[in-house]
Amino acid sequence: MAIEEPLELQETIYSSKNPTRRWIHQTRRDWIVRMLRSLTSVERSLEIGPGSGIYLPVLAERSHQVLAADIEQAYLKHAQEMQQQLPNLECVHDDITHTRLQPGSFDLILCSEVIEHIADSLAALQGAELLLADDGVMVLSTPQRYCPLEVCAKIAFLPGIIQVVCWIYGEAVEDTGHINLLTEKELKRQLTVAGLEVDTEYKSGFYLPLVAEFCGQPGLRLLRWLEGILRDTPLSGLLWTQYYVLRKRPSSPVQA
Asked: How is the chain split into domains, by residue range?
């Protein structure tokens, strides 16, 4: 599948005809935008895997310099097209698992919906920690491994079934390419190993098959209500997205 297809899909999911599909993506976007705008303006920021570039304008308004880094040339080309409107934006080809960027050179790093596409997510998190300034902030989001949406997606994307799913939604539905879904427990373990600590965390997005597809706005109201109930309970792993605001873990003082 050509990169242009998922790129186009990323640009349209926020205006999906399906209320639930539209809601879960808009909720994620709005939380990240709200969090970025709540942070103090910085000198340099980095987005790892900018995708359709929805966050680049926000980073550009909060930073003196913004760097968009990706390993896919099509995504970088799309980001480069935004440079005319965002003159403080620079684009670079870089693999975060083997980054060549300068250590400690970014005050703010955004990594949204990226590590689930990387087999070695720990290496990606270690790369991000390496690039983060000592007093910097990292904003991270990724799906939860056992949430109903991701479990159902494994079936929905099977050959023959995906055509039916597209017919039900009345719009394009493509395989997400998620190869490394993490539970909250495993992600937090990797964050600790990478030298990052959690400052703020949040979860959102509840999906139930059939309710999401066929119950319209009443179904969405039910899912929003259930999301609120589940969020702060042991069942919060059923919500789609986990979000974190991270900082470097302070180094232990050197013993005399």
From this structure: 4-248
CA distances from 212 to 13, 158, 164, 222, 247 (A): 14, 19, 15, 10, 36
In angstroms, what is the C-alpha Rg of the chain? 18
Q: What is the pTM of this model?
A: 0.91
CATH code, residues 4-248: 3.40.50.150
Phi, psi of 86 (to 5 degrees): -125, 80
Structure tokens at 77: 């080309």
Contact predicate 59/138, CB 8 Å: no
> For residue 77, which amino acid is it?
K
Q: Determine how many CB atoms are found less than 10 A away from the CB of residue 145.
A: 19
Distance CA 143, CA 109 (A): 18
Over pLDDT 90: what percentage of the chain? 79
* Per-residue model confidence as pLDDT tens digits over 117-136: 999 999 999 999 999 999 99
